[in-house]
Design a protein that fits this description.
The complex is a heterodimer of chains A (482) and B (356).
Chain A lengths: L3 E11 L38 H13 L3 E2 L2 E2 L1 E5 L9 E5 L5 E2 L2 E6 L6 E14 L3 E3 L8 E3 L6 E7 L6 H17 L12 E10 L9 E6 L2 H20 L7 E6 L4 E7 L9 E2 L6 E2 L2 H9 L5 H12 L3 H7 L3 H14 L4 H18 L11 H12 L5 H12 L6 H8 L7 H14 L1 H8 L3 H14 L6 H13 L1
Parallel strand pairs in A: 13-14
Antiparallel strand pairs in A: 1-11, 1-12, 2-6, 3-17, 4-5, 4-16, 6-8, 7-8, 8-11, 9-10, 12-13, 14-15
Helix pairs in contact in A: 1-4, 2-3, 5-6, 7-8, 7-9, 9-10, 12-14, 12-15, 13-14, 14-15
Chain B lengths: L16 H8 L5 E6 L5 H7 L2 E4 L19 E6 L2 H11 L29 E5 L9 H16 L3 E5 L4 H19 L18 H12 L2 H14 L5 H21 L5 E5 L15 H6 L5 H6 L3 E8 L5 E8 L4 H14 L19
């Protein structure tokens, strides 16, 4: 019996504003408890919320980036419930009329032959405030309350129930994560809770209506998202096959056991008594404001990929790799700008290869790369004009990385790495190598082409890499066959 | 304890009766209050002083303890309209900390105080001086209207057809907002916390049951009910529709008149505890005031005579949006020609008032 899986995601994206959504307090992470909670965040009697325009602009940015409708008028509502880290007794959120409506996000699922593309439709994205934190450790028999997070601006992004596997859900979450960082509305820091997913999962037999869903709350890593969904799918199928019905519930994923456990059942569900917040007028967004936000937005990854393919003749794969993050794309573009469009392909190879590997090894982001794009362009230029070989180029790059010189030229000069193209300088080296490697010479003459490569290697080594490899090839062959 | 007062009104947290009593005794020259459904105007009427509720959004609500946010509005209470004008000039103005505060140029509300009332059209809503008003209040308000006519005003009749639904709409909207606004008094950070409880839910339940009085609990329950899933459309949404209709009625009426006049309350002040057993009777005392809050209009109460037992009666004047200066002008001219506002209460009316 086959099963169909239906998944919808709700993602809480923390908007990277300087101050909170309804107060002037700082949103910086990691301060001492309650040091970044002002009177408004603490819900002192008599205080009132005031909308942070920067949070609205970020919501508009997101709406534009996913081709959604940016509502000209949206409404803040109160979601009423009691919890100790919710000092007002209600959360200000958008309910009936959200600021962003519809839109799609393109995802790539799987690898190799099985890879496929899909458009994930979004239902909505709405602005809301985060709650504080309840701290259950360190307070014997009591709970501590930290209101630093209270009032942090969130954009809750809701998909339609259109994903059919954990792989699709993770691909969507990764694409969304990359996008919100690309357009600069979220720092993407999942450890600090800047990007958290809730997954609604249900299963059904093909052709049947939607099954009863269970919601997995607060998944803050892609791996947990995958594990939690996979566990939930298996568990739901098992239950149904055992003759049980799925009970609608909210569950939590335990990374230690790899299982989900009940948080509350449908019977415990709150009646949030939503109603429009009388403290906040409807959020009116004029067309001029949308235009202003649009003008300040970076080129989106899809548009940039198309341009890289068209202008530089890069493959779709390369273009996608180079637009994995805005920083990577900007770095690549800066290299090409300095080295010229003819160097786009080698620039792409360097950025995806040597640069990426080196950054990875040191766990650095490309924005912190010690080798500036102009410096890398300098390396490419010297390879292009045969001043150095690719091997030497890697040496020069390493030297630049380590700060041994300010430019490729300076390092080539200082370390004497200039490629030797003078045949009269190379020939004596070849002669020496041939004399010292009689066996290889004999093997070559017996028809072993491999021996030739060994001899080239020896010559290159003897020249300390500076000999032009093409020239070495040619001279060596002439001497051996001559 | 037979003193007449506004009783146990929740909204009197800010507009405390003791303050009004002190004002009547001429001990306090002026004070500020908040008016959600009449809590500036009704106490002013009951105590023989002058009080004005400005247009919603004219005075910042920042710092005021919220009861019903879409109705709450602060304003001055003083002996005379002139004093109210001075105080309101200081209180009014845009406040960036209140998103419902209106961005307007500051006004000097004393500027029109002496303007003559010649040709002023005073609209009296049909039915406002009928059977619903006690005879003593009706007589005092009629005398006040006659005085305005002597000053050059012209009396016209206007219709507020949806006014009859206003009190019901008000007692849906105000408790709905209050039920949410009062959530923060849950014993965690604010309000009373029960001494003993078994768990979090029990702490909330006990703390709030113990900390709030019967009338507040009633309003929280009503408010929670009308916002509940399944009841929201029938109560809260319907009440909002009434609210729009009431505002439309006023807009139509102000095409025919400059100010609307009538009673503030159907009776003079009732005795402490007299109506607490019958909240609906008490709510009906707000029949002439709540509709003004629903529409967000400015309105004042100025003393216009005395009723049963020598108790003061107020004349209510309602203006169009931002017509505070005009209302104060009418009340000032009225007070130039009358002495009701200068009278101190006869001995004994306040009972133990002075000794409490």
């Amino acid at each position: 019996m086959t099963w169909e899986v239906v998944i919808g995601l709700e993602t809480h994206v923390q908007l990277s504003t300087v101050s909170k959504i309804f107060s002037g307090a700082s949103t910086a992470f990691g301060a001492e408890p309650n040091r970044q909670a002002c009177a408004v965040d603490m819900a002192l009697p008599g205080v009132l919320p005031v909308m942070n325009a920067a949070a609205v602009d970020k919501a508009i940015t997101f709406g534009l980036a996913i081709g959604a409708h940016v509502a000209p008028r949206s409404v803040f509502a109160r979601k009423n419930y009691f919890y100790p880290d919710l000092p007002k007794g209600y959360q200000i959120s958008q309910f009936e009329i959200p600021v962003v409506q519809g839109g799609t996000i393109a995802i790539q699922v799987g690898e190799g032959d099985k890879a496929y593309a899909k458009q994930v439709e979004l239902t909505r994205a709405h602005l809301e405030e985060d709650a504080g934190k309840s701290l259950h450790e360190d307070f014997h028999g009591m709970s501590g309350i930290d209101l630093n997070r209270a009032g942090t601006p969130l954009l809750e992004i809701v998909t339609e129930p259109v994903m059919t596997s954990s792989a699709e859900a993770v691909a969507y979450a990764r694409a969304l994560h990359a996008l919100v960082m690309w357009i600069g509305i979220c720092d993407g820091n999942m450890q600090e809770g800047s990007f958290r997913c809730d997954a609604n999962v249900s299963v059904r037999r093909p052709g049947e209506p939607l099954g009863t869903r269970r919601e997995i709350k607060n998944l803050n890593s892609f791996r947990f998202l995958q594990q939690a969904i996979d566990y939930e799918i298996r568990s739901q199928i098992e239950q149904i096959e055992d003759g049980h019905k799925i009970q609608q519930a909210t569950v939590l994923f335990d990374p230690d056991t790899g299982e989900t456990r009940m948080m509350r059942s449908k019977e415990d569900a709150h009646d949030y008594r939503y109603f429009p917040d009388p403290d906040l007028p409807p959020l009116v967004i004029e067309p001029a404001r949308i235009e202003r936000v649009k003008a300040g937005m970076p080129e989106l990854p899809a548009a940039m990929q198309a341009r890289f393919a068209a202008d530089f003749g890069l493959s779709a794969y390369d273009a996608a790799q180079l637009t994995a993050s805005l920083e990577t794309a900007r770095y690549f573009e800066a290299v090409v700008a300095a080295a010229g469009p003819a160097q786009a392909k080698p620039a792409a190879n360097w950025v995806m290869g040597e640069v990426a590997a080196r950054l990875n090894r040191e766990e650095k982001s490309i924005a912190d790369s010690p080798v500036m794009p102009q410096q890398l362009a300098g390396v490419l230029a010297r390879v292009a004009d045969s001043t150095i070989s690719n091997n030497i180029a890697r040496k020069v790059f390493e030297a630049l990385w380590n700060g041994e010189g300010s430019s490729a030229d300076a390092i080539i000069e200082a370390q004497g790495l200039k490629q030797v193209t003078d045949a009269s300088a190379i020939e004596p080296i070849i002669d020496e190598v041939l004399a010292a490697n009689a066996q290889s010479v004999a093997e070559f003459k017996a028809g072993k082409e491999k021996a030739f490569n060994a001899l080239v290697g020896q010559v290159m080594k003897a020249s300390r890499g500076k000999a032009n490899p093409a020239q070495v090839n040619e001279l060596l062959r002439r001497k051996l066959e001559g | 304890m037979r003193s007449r007062t506004r009783g146990t009104w929740l909204a009197c947290l800010a507009a405390h009766p003791a303050v009004r009593r002190l004002q009547w005794r001429r001990i306090v020259p002026a004070a500020s209050g908040t008016d959600t459904g009449g809590s500036i105007r009704q106490p002013a009427s009951f105590c023989g002083i002058t009080g004005i509720k400005p247009t919603y959004g004219v005075v910042s609500r920042y710092g005021m303890i919220a009861y019903a946010s879409s109705l709450d509005q602060g304003g001055p209470m003083a002996r005379t309209a002139q004093d109210c004008a001075v105080l309101l000039s200081a209180m009014a103005g845009f406040d960036e900390r209140d998103a419902t505060s209106l961005q307007r140029e500051p006004e000097d509300y004393t500027r029109d105080l002496d303007r003559p009332l010649d040709g002023l059209r005073v609209g009296v809503p049909r039915g406002w001086l009928g059977d619903g008003v006690s005879a003593d209040v009706r007589a005092a308000v009629e005398a006040g209207l006659a005085e305005l006519e002597k000053l050059g005003a012209k009396r016209v009749e206007v219709d507020l057809p949806h006014a009859q639904y206003a009190i019901a709409a008000y007692y849906v909207i105000a408790p709905a907002e209050a039920s949410s606004n009062l959530s923060r008094y849950d014993g965690v950070r604010y309000g009373h916390r029960a001494a003993e409880y078994t768990d979090l839910a029990d702490m909330y339940a006990k703390s709030r049951a113990e900390g709030f009085g019967a009338e507040v609990r009633r309003r929280i329950l009503v408010g929670s009910y009308v916002l509940s899933a399944g009841y929201y459309d029938a109560y809260y949404l319907k009440a909002q529709q009434v609210r729009r209709k009431v505002a439309e009625d006023f807009a139509a009426a102000f095409k025919l008149c400059d100010v609307i006049a009538g009673p503030v309350a159907p009776t003079v002040a009732y005795k402490l505890g007299e109506k607490t057993a019958d909240p609906v009777q008490m709510y009906l005392g707000d029949v002439y005031t709540t509709l003004v809050n629903l529409a967000g209009l400015p309105a004042l109460s100025a003393p216009c005579g005395f009723g049963e037992g020598g108790m003061p009666v107020g004349l209510q004047l309602v203006g169009n949006y931002f017509a505070e200066a005009r209302l104060l002008n009418v009340a000032h001219r009225f007070q130039q020609a009358t002495h009701h506002h200068l009278q101190t209460p006869p001995a004994g009316v306040l009972g133990a008032g002075g000794a409490q």
